[in-house]
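User: I'm writing a tutorial on reading structure tokens. Could you give me a worked example: one chain, its sequence, then its tokens, then a sentence or two explaining what the tokens reveal?
Assistant: Sure. Here is the example chain.
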Amino acid sequence: MIKNYLKIAIRNVSYSSVINIIGLSAGLAVSVYLIIYINQQLSFDDFHSKSSRIYRVLNNMNHSTGTLYLKEISTRHALGIDKSLPFVERSTNVSSELKVVVKLDGESFYEPQLHRADSNFFRVFDFDLFEGNEETVLKSLDKIVVSSRIADKYFGDTSPLGEVITISNKVYEIEGVLKPAGRSSHLNIDFLGVNDYADPKGDLWLTKYFLSANENEYDMERQVNQLFNGEVDKAYKFSIQRLIDIHLHTNPELNDFSVNGNIDFLYVLGSVALLILITVSFNHTNLTWLST
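And here are its predicted structure tokens:
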């Protein structure tokens, strides 16, 4: 019986109907894919509960070759902002080292990046730990937090807590394992150590993130620049950027922690998705009308 129904249905399906269905399905599939991609790009870093109140300080430095756009400021400036500006409720300073060599059990591996921060990192951002205590990690220079990807890669099903690993010729004890963020972030962290503010090599260059109830970015920017106006040979101008603006609204000349997107490109994709939807809807209506 069912076989007969299928035969009758197939006989009644015209060539134009097949084209209509295929065209509509393909158009909808492409549009849905583009919409999902656009939504993913727009949602970078919004999983943090305080994302609307997290900002970072950017450094536009005048140079003989032009303006350098930096995400880093000096240790002196980073610590000075904490001490002198009342709108900073809480802050953390993040730095990174690129292309590090990891040594374990006599073998060497290359990893793209090592991040460093301080104990306030987990009080500003909502990154969670699988293992370890967020209240006690990132307080010792010889300890490190690793991502679940790194834990699986190097230790398999065994807990890495207490294990020793060498990164850039420095020995660390693993004190925590990060959970995957679950949502997109411009901070893709595999190794997270501690900033050494007493490093005898000189000033660190840090990316300063802070929490603030002040929603006026221009006012905060004015106060930061005013704080350092009296410095001799000032070659820089500070600006304030919201965390949720980083992925799509950062100067492409700035060397960020990860590759950022482009809001103009998303406008183009959104227009393409809308155009496809209009076109397939128009074609579907016309072909349906012609087949009746």
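What the tokens reveal: The chain has two domains: 2-44+264-291, 51-246. The chain is about 35% helix and 30% strand.
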